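Example 3.2
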Amino acid sequence: MKVVGISGSLRGKSNTLQYVTAALKVLDQNGFETELISLRGKEIKPCNGCYDCVEKGYCTIKDDDFEGILGKMRDAEGLILGSPVYLSSVVPQMMSLLARATFVAYWNDKFFSGKVGGPITVARRAGHNVAFSQLLLWFFINGITVPGSTYWNIAFGRDKGEVEKDEEGIGTMKLLGENMGWLLMRLNS
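Structure, written as C-alpha cells:
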C-alpha cells in the first residue's frame, strides 16, 4: 500500500516538509511504500470553475504540475497533506491543488472515497485550527477516513529547524503515521 505526503510549503527544508516526513517515515518503517511531494518549485493553477472535468473526465487546465500530482494522489491508499499557515488558512498553492482534485474526483467515480488521510498544519504562533479545519473538510467531502492522534496534527515553527525543538509536534506526527498505518491495514485486510 502506498501513502503520498504533500508539503504545501514553498520553502526549502521547511518545517512543514519535515513534519510530513516524520509521519511518512513511520509508515515507511512499517512496510508501506511512501512518497513525498513538495509543492516547492511546482505550479498549480487555480480552478476556474469551467466544469470541463464533468464532461471530459479530466482537468482541461494545462501547462502546470497538477496532472502528475493528481495521478499520484489517485493511486495512493493514503494521503497526508501538510500546509504552513501564514494568514490563518491553508496556502493558496495547496488549495488550488485540492480544489481541482476534488472536482476531477467528484465527477469521476469519487476516486478519493475510501482512502485514509491526515492533515498537518504548521504555524509560528496561531491560525492552525482554521487551516486544520480546511484540510479536514477536504478529506470529509472526498469520503476520506481520518484517524486521530493524541492531539491535533498541528506544530509550531517559523524559522528553519524549529521543528527539532517541538518534541510534542514530532511525537504527534509519528503517532499520526502509526494510526494511519493501523487503519490502512484494517481497511485493506
